[in-house]
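[SOLVED] Need 3D model of a two-part complex

Original post:
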Amino acid sequence: MDDLLADFVAETREMLEASSGEIVAWEADPSDTARLDTIFRFVHTVKGNCGFFDFPQLEKLSHAAEDALSECRSGRREPDRALVSAVLAIIDRIGVMTDSIEAGEECSAEGDDDLIAALQPGEITSVVGEPKAAAPQQAESADGEDDAAPKAARSNGVQRSIRLPTELLDEVMKGVSDMVLARNDLARRLREAGEQPTIDGPFDRLSAILADVRNAITRMRMQRLEHLFGSLPRLVRDLSNELGKQVMVDFEGGEVELDREMVEMVRDPLTHIIRNAIDHGLEGPGERIKADKREIGLLKFAARQSGNRITLTISDDGRGINIERLAAKAVAAGIYSQAEVDAMSQRRKHYLIFEPGLSTADEVSSVSGRGVGMDVVRANIERVGGSIDVASKPGEGTSFYLKLPLTLSIIAALTVGSDGQRYAIPRSYVEEIVFGSSDHIDFAEAGDRRLITFRGKRVPCLSLTEILGTQADDAMDWEASTLVLVRLASDDIFALAVDRVYDHEDVVVKPIAPAIMDTGLYAGTTLLDDGRPMMLLDLPSIAQKHELVNEMRSATRVPEEETAEQRKAQPIMLFTGLDGRRRAVRLELVRRIDTIAREAIDIEGSRVQAVIDGAIYPLAGLEHGELTADRCRLLRLSDGDSEIVYAVREVLDAAELEGEVIPSDADAMIEGVALIDERPVPVIDGHALFARHSGGQRKAPPLSCRLPADSDWARTILEPLVEAAGYRIAGDGDEESDVAIELAEAPAVAAGPARRVIRLRHEPDAPGDGADSIYRYDREALLNALKQARMGETA
Amino acid sequence: MNDLLLMCMVAGRRAAIPAIRVQSVIEIEDITPIPGAPTFIRGLTALRSQALTVIDCSVALGFETAQAPPDQRAAVVEIDGHLYALLVDAAYDVGEALSDPIEVPGGFGAGWQAATRGMVETDGGPTLLIDVEALVSGPVSQAA
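Solution:
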């Protein structure tokens, strides 16, 4: 059964049970308004849920009961015994229907109308209606008893579910986590005690069981995103009604599972984003029609799991973020200066939406724009270890990308050592790990700030010992340290020098005492396998403390990065040529790597071609050696228009071309020699390669050439040559061809006008008038003539 | 007033912790220091796979750190869901409070004044009743 439906059944049952007492009490005293309210809430909820699930019968019943009850609540009608009975009959009927829904069978609508009619005030039949109303229900339950056995058998197939308080679940989770730690402790002690076959066997079994239980518990804590999505249509409906807009919602990836707690944590930020989207993003119907869009706006939610993270995308097809106005507001609010804003990239400007105190809405509506802004959303998302990003196109819409860890309590961590102690760093922040001794790391000092140069960028560097105050900075042996490059959610990067990096581990994070929290250094604690506690570092807070994320820096960061981009190394691909020597080609040229059979390569003299997927490509690279016997590895290179393939022995690696390429005149086919990993590597000159092999035939529209129409020789032998020279063979339909080839001995039949005529003769030696004719097998002369013809045309 | 109290020695004085708050008294073997944390926090220790924050009571009361006795006894208390190990000079027995906590004119000294709820009479004589919440928030100088 569908999860949602199971929920609905469970909820309805639960309410039925809870309200049965109320119903009896109400029956005893119909004027008791508190009871009335409870029952009203029940039918109201059922009605609401029915609308969602499309149970028209159920909806009709609950709606009728709700109407009657609301009349009573508003005082327009006095509840009397007849009404109570009628409502009770309906509630019973709801119970029966719920059972049928669970069992997946149809429930007959017979008698429903009588039940509804019984609700009408002053209806004489209402008193009679009671037994009558009860009748079908009775019949139903009698039926039920008859086939109780098959029904029970059937419901075995149905997944039974129970509802549990989340605290209990958390309690169990905590217990299992502790059990795992206790097991680890025991495992360590057993190891210390040496081999003990009588104990080791059962212990291994215990470990396996525990792993299973842990898995199951983790799954228990997971919740399908559907649960979150389920509440959104209503929210969207309410908001769009309030704002006079029409909004359609679309969901994707509801089956993605997320930690319950996480689901709760994203609920508020999500609500806020939806509010913003409906209020500011989506236009009113009129404006949408003017903009040539559908009258109804679209709000789309998509969830996707990648590894241990979930990406949740919320996109609207509204007007997009007005970045000019956003930037102007940022300037007006004094957050940035005009110059700073001007220097920002588009992306960075979009990111302004997350600055505190900014809102693009000019008018504050009842829904959004009241102080709580996207900055709070970002803060909330980041607090749970997630990140948020935005993309927007004017007139087309805005998308928010939420990246969330799967769970709150278990995180992937990198354990590092400092001063003899271990610390954990959330994996999500770790960009890269490099050794301080490595050659492409330079340490530098600017004032008191230590910097490292890495990949052409200067990155501030902190040592963990200094951060923790365990060792003075001067005593630090930087070269011996390992650097962890940390990228914060705000895109700020810094390097953290640690003594060594131990391992990747999934750790169960527990909260720490407030007094330790106050240090701003730690985010939590976790226990190592040997039972010793280990602190989890709070990197964003550390960065804040050391002023690595202040406004000035983040404002200047972008242009800095852009200039760095220009200097940035160009990617190249390393390979060994057929002669076994290392060579490199710029990665932009490489379209793909093919492996083809030797038969697909055709070599004849200097003409070398390869057939890949039914297309013929010129083949280069053979000048370095022989092809291998059976299979050939080819790089397919492209200059954007044409493609050629380059034979290699082996594709090695992608690398970065950091230094300059030293030009070399010795070999026309190489651009120069570059230093890669301390070794000289010739870089293939793409320009020369394409110039030689692709022939540039496709540059101009092909000229047409008329051939003698009635000659077999012309058709079978001449035609391919002319085509290879880049001409199109003129058909009969062409009025005027650019070139015409005529056979000298045949009478000049003017098949059509031509701008230039080439005459071919049969004999090698010209019989006198050789100046204007070419021997028909004088390939060079013929091609020359064709070439001249083309030059003349294009000049 | 017949509250049960855990009698202990803190900074060379007789003190008592309400027994109802104390989950257990443990001997601390191994403390993982927390660099950067205030000095009254000695570090973390593990108890049945749970991490306890170890509070040095002497320092928390504003005294110089006590001479670490060979057997480091600590009372385990839970405050706001966090477990703390209150490190004391010595832990004795559980005794009964013979009076309500009372204030003494002139106070008990700055550190004691902030982290105690007053003086109670016990079988062993006047004893200061420790306010665990105040204790774990650190010495007066830092709290102020």
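Edit: The longest helix of chain A spans residues 166-193.
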